[in-house]
UniProtKB/TrEMBL annotation:
It comes from the Eukaryota. Its main location: nucleus. The gene is PSMB4. Residues 1-48 are annotated as: Disordered. Keywords: Cytoplasm, Nucleus, Proteasome. It holds the Pfam family Proteasome. GO terms for biological process: proteolysis involved in protein catabolic process. It comes from Alligator sinensis. This is Proteasome subunit beta type-4. It is found in: Nucleus. GO terms for cellular component: cytoplasm; nucleus; proteasome core complex. InterPro entries: Ntn_hydrolases_N, Proteasome_beta4, Proteasome_sua/b, Proteasome_suB-type. Residues 1-18 have a biased composition (Basic and acidic residues).
C-alpha cells in the first residue's frame, strides 16, 4: 500500500496536478468513476488539453496572419504589452500670453522669447497667429508644436477659402476644433505641449477662449498662460471689475503694465512683446515693442531670496 501511494504521488507530480501532499491524491477507484484512466489525475489531463488547444490556436492565428487572412486591430502600432516611448517634455518653450476683452474687440499680447530650459535661446519669436480677418491665436508651450498647429490651421483656412461659399471660420469654430484636436492627441499619449488662447470678433460679438494640452477649454473675459496666470490675471480682473468696458488704449496700457510686472518677477520672461488687436474692422498685429524698466529699486526688494 505504501509503495502504491508513492507511485500515485509521483504520477500526480508528473501530471502537473495541483493536489500535492500525502493523502490528498485521488484513489484509483475515484479516477475511474470520474471518467479518467486509472492511475492518472483528471485535473492534470484537463490542464494538458487546455494547453494543447491554446498552442494550436496560436499556431492557426499565426498562419492566418502570414497569409493575410486576419487583420490585427493594432497592426501598424505598438503590440500589446509593449512600452510606449513618450517625449520627456517640450523643447524650446514659450512662456507668457495675455488676453483681454476691450470695448468692441480683443487685445492679445505675447513676449518674443523662446527659452531652452533656463537659457534665453531665441529672442525674436512671434507666437501670435492671424488665423483670418476675425480671429487671432496666441500660444505658449513647445514652439515646435505651435508651428505644427499653425501649419494645420493655415491649411484649414486655405481649404475653406477654396470652397468659395462666402463663409469662413469663426473664433468659436477654431476654439471648438482645438478642443477636439488637443484631446485627441492627449488620448493618443502624444499631446501637443501648448496652451492656446483664441480671440476674435464675429457677428458683432467678441470671443475669448482657452484650450490647454489636455483639451480643457473655457471662455473668460481675461486669460493668461504661464506665470502670467498667477501675476497678471489678478491685475486684469481687478481692472475689469472697476471698469467692465475698456477702450483700446486703456486695454493696451493695462497689457503693457502686466508685461512689465512679469518681466520684473518672472525669470523666463522678456521685455520685448507683441500685441494684436481684433475689432470689427479686422485683425491688426503690431510690431514688437519693448517696455521701459528701472532696476534702481531692485536692492529694496526683500523676501524673495
Amino acid at each position: 500500500m505504501a509503495a502504491r501511494a508513492e507511485t500515485q504521488e509521483a504520477r500526480h507530480t508528473q501530471d502537473g496536478c495541483p493536489r500535492r501532499g500525502a493523502g490528498s491524491h485521488f484513489p484509483r477507484k475515484r479516477h475511474a468513476q470520474d471518467g479518467g484512466a486509472p492511475g492518472r489525475c483528471p485535473a492534470g489531463a484537463r490542464r494538458r488539453r487546455r494547453m494543447r488547444v491554446v498552442e494550436l490556436g496560436r499556431a492557426a492565428v499565426t498562419k492566418m496572419e502570414a497569409a493575410g487572412m486576419v487583420s490585427v486591430p493594432w497592426a501598424g502600432g505598438r503590440a500589446p504589452g509593449q512600452l510606449c516611448a513618450l517625449r520627456a517634455g517640450p523643447g524650446p518653450g514659450l512662456q507668457l500670453d495675455l488676453d483681454l476683452q476691450a470695448g468692441g474687440g480683443e487685445v492679445v499680447a505675447a513676449d518674443t522669447l523662446g527659452s531652452y530650459g533656463s537659457l534665453a535661446r531665441f529672442r525674436n519669436i512671434s507666437r501670435i497667429m492671424k488665423v483670418n480677418d476675425n480671429t487671432v491665436l496666441g500660444a505658449s508651450g513647445d514652439y515646435a508644436d505651435f508651428q505644427y498647429l499653425k501649419q494645420v490651421i493655415d491649411q484649414m483656412v486655405i481649404d475653406e477659402e477654396l470652397l468659395g461659399d462666402g463663409h469662413n471660420y469663426s473664433p468659436k469654430a477654431i476654439h471648438s476644433w482645438l478642443t477636439r484636436a488637443m484631446y485627441s492627441r492627449r488620448c493618443k499619449m502624444n499631446p501637443l505641449w501648448n496652451t492656446v488662447v483664441i480671440g476674435g470678433f464675429y457677428n458683432g460679438e467678441s470671443f475669448l477662449g482657452y484650450v490647454d494640452m489636455l483639451g480643457v477649454a473655457y471662455e473668460a473675459p481675461t486669460l493668461a498662460t504661464g506665470y502670467g496666470a498667477y501675476l497678471a490675471q489678478p491685475l486684469m480682473r481687478e481692472a475689469l471689475e472697476k471698469k467692465p468696458i475698456l477702450t483700446k488704449e486703456e486695454a493696451q496700457d493695462l497689457i503693457e503694465r502686466c508685461m512689465k510686472i512679469l518681466y520684473y518677477r518672472d525669470a523666463r520672461s522678456f521685455n520685448r512683446f507683441q500685441i494684436a488687436v481684433v475689432t470689427e474692422k479686422g485683425v491688426e498685429v503690431e510690431e514688437p515693442r519693448s517696455v521701459e524698466t528701472n532696476w534702481d529699486i531692485a536692492h529694496l526688494i526683500r523676501g524673495f531670496e
